[in-house]
Specification:
With 217 residues, the chain is α+β, with helices and mostly antiparallel strands. The protein contains nine helices and eight strands. The chain folds into two domains: 59 residues, Arc Repressor Mutant, subunit A; 127 residues, no CATH class.
Length: 217
């Protein structure tokens, strides 16, 4: 297939996915991997990760590498067909999507609800198999991401240190991304890990906010 014809076959898909597509999606549309390789050679496409490509000239999306790793979890599914069972961005990677805190994760983190199994061959990908419901996930920047309260609970369950947790909480508060009562409820099961009383979500929240004294929440 010629380059122009191949790009024409994939144009709608790429436009709906921030300029990205997978080799599996292309194959479903009749564009073989060898056609993608030719497009890369001629400058029509850029290979972002194994089996993931970006159409040249498309705006470079934010968090490109994370987005590519997420697409790899279910490479044959278009975005509008993905659900929580196909894997969602979570933990520190979710904080990066929301732009909160100063976390620098060594790996891209995703969560998959039990009993589903999704594996990755990448050393820089960590997949958590956990209990996860549809109401704990939402669309952010065309990715499925755990909602802020679930993200906070996941970070606490990992025993993230108090200073980094405070950075996340303060940013959530300043930007009014989440309601105070919901945030305190998410913190409550982990308050004892940070020196507070069991169930003391309000007290832990107030303590974390002291890292930014001028913050009212």
């Amino acid at each position: 297939m010629g380059g122009a014809a191949a790009l024409g076959q994939l144009a709608d898909l790429a436009e709906a996915q921030s300029g990205l597509l997978t080799a599996r999606q292309a194959d479903i549309r009749g564009v073989a991997r060898r056609d993608l390789a030719r497009l890369v050679q001629t400058g029509g496409m850029e290979r972002v990760a194994y089996g993931v490509y970006r159409v040249a000239g498309a705006p470079r999306p934010r968090l490109l590498e994370l987005r590519a790793a997420w697409l790899q979890l279910a490479p044959g599914l278009d975005l509008d067909r993905r659900t929580v069972v196909d894997g969602v961005v979570s933990h520190a990677s979710a904080a990066g999507v929301y732009g909160v805190g100063l976390l620098e994760p060594a790996r891209y983190e995703f969560s998959v609800p039990l009993p589903r199994r999704i594996r990755s061959r990448r050393d820089d990908v960590l997949i958590h198999r956990t209990r996860l419901t549809a109401d704990e996930v939402g669309w952010v920047d065309e990715m499925l991401v755990t909602v802020p309260t679930r993200m906070v609970a996941d970070l606490c369950a990992q025993r993230i240190d108090g200073e980094h947790l405070a950075g996340v909480i303060v940013d959530l508060a300043v930007r009014r991304i989440v309601d105070r009562d919901e945030l305190a409820l998410a913190l409550a099961p982990y308050a004892h890990q940070y020196g507070g009383q069991v169930g003391g979500g309000e007290q832990l929240l107030d303590y974390l906010l002291t890292f930014a004294p001028d913050t009212t929440f």
